[in-house]
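User: ok so my PI wants both of these folded by tonight, can you help

Assistant: No problem, let's get them done. Here's the first:
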Amino acid sequence: MTEAEKYKKATYHLWTFTASKMISMLGAHVLAFGFSLYILAMTGSATSFATNMICSILPRALLAPVAGYVADHYSKKRTILIAQAGTILTVGGLLLYTETVGMSVYAIYVTTIFNTICSAFSGVTFSSSIATLVNPERLQKAMSFNQLSTSVAMIGGPVIGGMLYGFFPMEVFLIINMVAYAIAFCLESTMNFKLYSTRGEDVKKEKIWAGLASGFHYIKQQKVIKTVMWISLWINLFFSAIVVGGTYIIIEILKVKSTHFGFIEASGAVGMLVASLYFATRAEVKVPLRFSKISLILLASSLGLAVIPLVANFSYLGIVTFYIVFYFIFAIFEMGINMPIGVYMQKLITEEYRGRVFGLMETMAMSMMPIGMMIFGVLYDTLPATVILLVTSAIIVTIALVMLRTSVLKEAHPEFYEQKIVTESVAN
């Protein structure tokens, strides 16, 4: 295949995987919204609702490293298509069960678990495939489009689900999900997941435990990758301060109505959408870790500013407006952290280990979410929210300054700092 043909195919991939991701995730968010409303309507129990959330997190956190091993050792295209087909069959099984026996909360739990398992394999494999689907020059654009599709699904899923729920039975939600995944399956089946692969055909396959062990060994040898993974772990832990605290402060302390809180949360998704479009249309960030460090410090600072409505005498409209702007800006800074690091990691990690590294990163990040929620849930019940937010803000700034210190940035981007030294020498 000539370079011109590869470039044309990469352009096709750019739009095809964006469309497939957007359609499948839209179907997933519509179904998740329908499941949530159904569980609350049938049980009225927060515990039942939380159980379904655990079913949507825990299997993926546990299986992400295994999914990474599979992505590194087996056909990425086959893995993704099998996972998508698994989702269709799982939801189809629930539809059949509903038609013959009737919908039940326990059936939803089982479906959520199987869907989450399929999502772990397709998600990790897709993440490790982006660098082989498009040319390196358009990697940032591809990842921006990938995030853009997620943002659209986050905004559109609840909107579509909310409109459907009052007028249609749960079977319609199941059918929409199946149709969405079937379309994604057809689109993904036309993609060449080896287009820009640098991996040979004669790579020796390791047994699963040996493969996972070699993945750990590879990470230990790569100081920059190890640093990024530790940052990911700590940031996901401390970001629970806003995940838990945002809802608690806005609804419980400031008494904002739930409908208005919906607008506040939606502004975060809009912020992600705007940031995705920005990164998709600009040149690739030259010094990704430094850009992410600045974004992380700005994000931590904005977290500290979230206390202002708690100490200032704002009107109700002022409170809602403040947090709409806050969530919007917070999401932009979050993208400013994730996008440059994501592109950098795609290029830095050797293709043979990419799936295992991304799988382990996902496990570390997702395992911190429930732990962080538990810790901050207790803290918000015992300490003033202003103290928690300000201390957390200071901790995140400290993490950014220490873990992304200049010596680490020089090791990650020697070409930039060497050029900087030469430029300064010439200037003097």
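One down. Here's the second:
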Amino acid sequence: MSKKRGLSLEEKREKMLQIFYESQDFFLFKELEKRGPKKGVISQSVKDVVQSLVDDDLVLKDKIGTSVYFWSFPSCTGNQLRSVRRKLESDVENSTKRFSELVDQCEELKKGREESDEREEALADLKSMELKHSELKDELGKYADNDPAAFEAMKEAIQVAHAAANRWTDNIFILKQWCSNNFPQAKEQLENMYKEVGITDDFDYVELPSLPLSAVAD
């Protein structure tokens, strides 16, 4: 015996609409949950089906006091469908008009662009100039490192890095002095700890390097 096929979403929508059309009454959601199974729509599906009808303006709902009521009359649905149809017809008319305008615009743009020897020659010249522009752009990129603006930016970056490095050097010296003052008995252990993290006897401030003038092309 074959298994009975379940209702599709569209069929469930039609069944729920029948409840409204046949009674032409107002319903609470709990009432719809009870009536749905009688039409073949299981109660667990009623909420989603009714909400889809509300979203499509086929069922109306409103809150009265603390209760939410749902209703739909054949005349209301007909008016809504007619309204949708008018909107779609208006959209089609506007789209058709816009299409016609674009066709006219396309034809207008074609004027003066007809195929000819002069046009082919101009297009060839344009392609040649675009290729030359690309080559010159690549060539210019090779000299980017010698750009005066890039050189000045490099100098500023070095100065910022130099100041930051020496600021941290100051902090390290201050910390070492504090440790020496507060833990004099642990001098040897502290010295070993400093060496482990790279703070040796020659640890000192960083000197600002000087960039050669040759770094910038004449």
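Residues 213-218 have pLDDT under 50 and may be disordered. Residues 145-215 form one domain. Good luck tonight!
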